[in-house]
Amino acid sequence: MEQKSIFEALQSKTQLPLEWVEDAYGPKLKIAPQDLVAVLTLLKNDSALGFDCLTNQTGSHMDPVIRLYYVLYSYLHHHELVVFCEVPVGAPVVNSVVGLFGGANWLERETFDLLGVKFTGHPDLTRIMLPEDWVGHPLRKDYVYVQEYNGIDNRPSEITKSFQPS
């Protein structure tokens, strides 16, 4: 099924607000963050759509929001769909989809670790890449890089400085 046809089929099955977005990175389905679990449940459980696999979940800081992407695939129908929602940087909270897609567990933990998004209902929302005592979330645009951590000097070396424009 073509992606636009997937959108139209989904639109006919729900009253939730859906938006079809086409940009340089390809077509995507934009939804409200509070509708995330409902929309992904419909996409997974509807036999005509059958998105049985969450292949990726990631995010990006796009001031003043954090955009969360969910890449879904149907092994039965061999089609793919990217779904996204936006949460405010000041309160980045969305419901977890771990109950729907078990593979979201570590993906949501990575997004929490690097972007600071809190996934309500996640069974173990702890850091997965950085130490527990790390301060901040390094993929946010407002992140302040530490100069030193546990005796490791993170300041730019003289060689690195020589490659930077003056």
For the structure shown, list the relevant keywords:
23% helix, two-stranded parallel sheet, 31% strand, NADH:ubiquinone oxidoreductase 30kDa subunit domain-containing protein, NADH_UbQ_OxRdtase_30kDa_su, 166 residues, alpha/beta, Beta Polymerase, domain 2
SSE layout and pairing:
Blueprint: H1 3-13, E1 18-23, E2 26-31, H2 36-45, E3 53-62, E4 65-74, E5 79-88, E6 93-95, H3 104-115, E7 118-120, E8 148-149, E9 152-153, H4 158-162
Parallel strand pairs: 2-5, 6-7
Antiparallel strand pairs: 1-2, 3-4, 4-5, 8-9
H/E element order = HEEHEEEEHEEEH
Residue windows where pLDDT falls under 50 for at least 5 positions = none
Tell me the CATH superfamily.
NADH:ubiquinone oxidoreductase Nqo5 subunit
First-residue to last-residue Cα separation: 53 Å
Question: Can you describe this structure?
Answer:
The chain has 166 residues and is an alpha/beta fold. It has a single domain (3-162), classed as Beta Polymerase, domain 2. The chain has four helices and nine strands; from the N terminus they run αββαββββαβββα. It has helices spanning 3-13, 36-45, 104-115, 158-162, and strands spanning 18-23, 26-31, 53-62, 65-74, 79-88, 93-95, 118-120, 148-149, 152-153. The strands form three sheets. It has a five-stranded mixed sheet with strand order 1-2-5-4-3, with helices on one face. The protein has a two-stranded parallel sheet with strand order 6-7. It has a two-stranded antiparallel sheet with strand order 8-9. Strand 1 (18-23) and strand 2 form a beta hairpin. It is elongated. The protein starts with a helix and ends with a helix. The mean pLDDT is 94. One of its GO terms (molecular function) is NADH dehydrogenase (ubiquinone) activity. Residues 30-145 form the NADH:ubiquinone oxidoreductase 30kDa subunit domain. This is NADH:ubiquinone oxidoreductase 30kDa subunit domain-containing protein.
